[in-house]
Automatic annotation (TrEMBL):
Gene3D superfamilies: HAD superfamily/HAD-like. One of its GO terms (molecular function) is hydrolase activity. Keywords: Hydrolase. It comes from Streptomyces chiangmaiensis. SUPFAM superfamilies: HAD-like. This is HAD family hydrolase.
Length: 270
């Protein structure tokens, strides 16, 4: 039987920090939560217990591929329920993990393409260092020598600065994404969709399902046969949509649960 491939973003799509849970219901009606990530001895990310069961069922029925902008180290902190994924995509497509091990040939090809098609990482890093105000920047980070991001105080972040950065980056073959307290600058050729297409080729999948919440997930959703986005995040804030994409009303951790229901329903129908 031809497998169904399910490629999903993780943070604020399937798993949620305590700040992103959006538990707006009365406390006695709040869903039971399962912690799936611990960092420095502190619980960091959650999904609902119901979502955990759905993800386990999905792993038995489809090729589930975590598809994240996280670095490999950050991804490996996550302990998702269900079968261990045979494939995972990290660093926004910069690394393709096969049974937990990075495919070096894939990574080499990505690095070569970035060198040909966009401004070097060091130029972007230096621009951020020179223009970002320490009054609202908490951390400067380089991820896997592929892209850069800032951790900021969101309430102090000037909206105009983000717009100016986006224009500056666009002219150099980079894109900018604001997700929670992080501002990402990512080379345009560094995409989740390219890595997902490679997994589809290797597995022979005839149907690809996807979900994501941010600008960096748009190419992933467009590459899928069907896609879902939650009622929060960059894509929801801009009313982004496209053929084959379903905009869900749910926000926060309940959106993750709904997305998994939709994945499982579509996989069963296939």
């Amino acid at each position: 039987m031809t497998p169904v491939l399910v490629a999903s973003d993780l943070d604020r799509t399937l798993i949620y920090s305590s700040a992103a849970l959006a538990l707006t219901m009365p406390d006695p009606r709040a869903p039971r939560l399962l912690c799936v990530e611990v960092h420095e001895s502190k619980p960091l990310s959650y999904l609902t217990e119901t979502a955990a069961g759905l993800l386990t069922d999905l792993g038995d029925r489809a090729v589930f591929v975590p598809t994240t902008t996280r670095t490999r180290k950050q991804y490996q902190r996550i302990n998702l329920p269900g079968p261990a994924p045979a494939y995972a995509i990290c660093a926004n497509g910069g690394h393709l993990l096969v049974d937990g091990v990075a495919d070096l040939d894939w990574h080499s090809g990505v690095v070569a393409r970035l060198a040909e098609e966009c401004a070097p990482l060091e130029e972007v890093r230096e621009h951020l260092a020179a223009t970002a105000d320490p009054a609202w920047v908490r951390k400067h980070r380089v991820a896997e020598d592929l892209f850069v991001y800032l951790v900021v105080e969101r309430e102090l972040l000037p909206e105009e600065w983000v717009k100016e950065l986006a224009v500056w980056a666009e002219n150099r073959g980079w894109t900018v994404s604001l997700q929670g307290r992080k501002i990402y600058a990512v080379p345009k050729p560094l995409t989740k969709s390219a890595a997902v297409r490679e997994v589809a080729r290797r597995t022979g999948a005839a149907l690809t399902l996807a979900a994501g919440d941010s600008l960096l997930d748009a190419d992933l959703l467009l590459a899928a046969d069907r896609g879902w986005r939650p009622g929060h995040g960059e894509l929801a804030d801009t009313d982004w949509t496209a053929p084959g994409i379903t905009a869900l009303p749910e926000r926060g951790v309940l959106a993750g649960e709904r997305i998994l229901r939709e994945f499982l329903k579509a996989a069963r129908q296939a």
